Amino acid sequence: MADQPVTETGLVVAAHSRRGKLETKSGEQLPYLIQGRRLRVVCGDIVDWTLDDQGTLAIVTGIAPRANALERQPAGRPGSEVLAANLSLMVVVCAPRPEPDWFLVDRYLCTGELMGCRLLLASNKADLVEHEHKQTTMLRDYERIGYTCLSVSAQTSQGMDALHDALQEQTGILVGQSGVGKSSLINCLVPGADITVGAISASIQEGTHTTTASAMHDLQDGGRLIDTPGVRDFIPAIPQAQSVQAGFPDIHSAANQCRFSNCLHLREPDCSVKLAVQNGTLSQRRYESYKRLLHTVTG
Ligand SMILES: Nc1nc2c(ncn2[C@@H]2O[C@H](COP(=O)(O)OP(=O)(O)OP(=O)(O)O)[C@@H](O)[C@H]2O)c(=O)[nH]1
Ligand SMILES: [Mg+2]
Ligand SMILES: [Zn+2]
After folding, report:
1. What's the CATH number where 286 sits?
2. 117, exposed or middle or buried, with CB in 10 Å at 0-12, 13-18, 19+?
3. Which of 96, 114, 119, 182 makes a 20 to 30 Å CA pair with 152?
4. What is the pLDDT of residue 9?
5. Is the CB of 123 under 6 A from ligand 1?
């Protein structure tokens, strides 16, 4: 009788529908194929695998329970789509060009909070000084909430040591609009990564969606970092309206004097969140982000 194939565990470092690449426990990288139609594997997943008969391909047979998952609601259809798993840190990348979408930044921060991730805002292209003032003002707002914001430049390497330090021993993910420089930052942090980067379109001043699949990279001195395709839209998969405020620490802490414990801070009387917006202790822009996201979640 033939020997039973030995099942081992591995870490998914690249995933494209049924195929991808995993890292074995000994650190070797192997291409994989998923067995069965129902399994859906993403970057960061820990999977069970056996070697195929040729000894060159890993056959993935199962996924370990996820500690957390980055999930979005696909536009126009119900349910949720998992984009990456088992993350300890989310780095939300923005830049003065393309024109920042701060509501998108807020949606990512909310998602990271609900996932229990550490959060970091990386403002890239700090070398584009003509935009410095506006960018700094926005970042100060986020710092006031308690988020760490780093001004970095993949071009001049400004701030890269601080970003490198923040990523130590973390499983991090870079998220943000197309063209903000996520792949460029990884090229800076990981010698030899050599990821293709794409120019900002001259006509519409937007990124050109250069990265098309997530991939995980090992950092020098420990830590891993996932590069993701840039997005135009990202609708977090949040099951209940009440959860949204748990993803906005500034709103959550202003809510302690609301008359109703289940106050959504919309039209309820004696709402301390609305009062905080009126007297300027809570950012009107963040409150608007909260309301827009709440509206999206509740349809
Ligand atoms: N001036 C300047 N340009 C940068 C910097 N970082 C990246 N860029 C440029 O911005 C453009 C987009 O960079 P990418 O790294 O491809 O951006 P991305 O976020 O990975 O984009 P997608 O893969 O489409 O999501 C390229 O032309 C880069 O050269 C920077 O620090 N300063
Ligand atoms: Mg990219
Ligand atoms: Zn309230």
Report:
1. 1.10.40.50
2. buried
3. 114
4. 97
5. no
Tell me, yes or no, whether 109 and 219 share the same domain.
yes
User: Which residue from 105, 74, 80, 71 is spatially nearest to 91, judged by alpha carbons?
Assistant: 105
Shared-domain flag, residues 89 and 218: yes
Secondary structure of the chain: what % helix, strand, coil (to 5)? 30, 25, 45
Count of domains in the chain? Answer: 3
Does 230 sit in the ligand 1 pocket, CB within 6 Å? yes
- Cα(155) to ligand 1 centroid in Å equals 9
| Residue 111 structural domain | 84-227
Chain segment 72-124, per-residue pLDDT in tens: 998 777 789 999 999 999 999 999 999 999 999 999 999 999 999 999 999 99
Residue 35 near ligand 1, beta carbon < 6 Å: no
How far apart are the CA of 2 and the centre of ligand 3, in A? Answer: 66
Residues 283/137, Cβ–Cβ less than 8 Å: no
**What CATH code is carried by the domain that includes residue 53?**
2.40.50.140
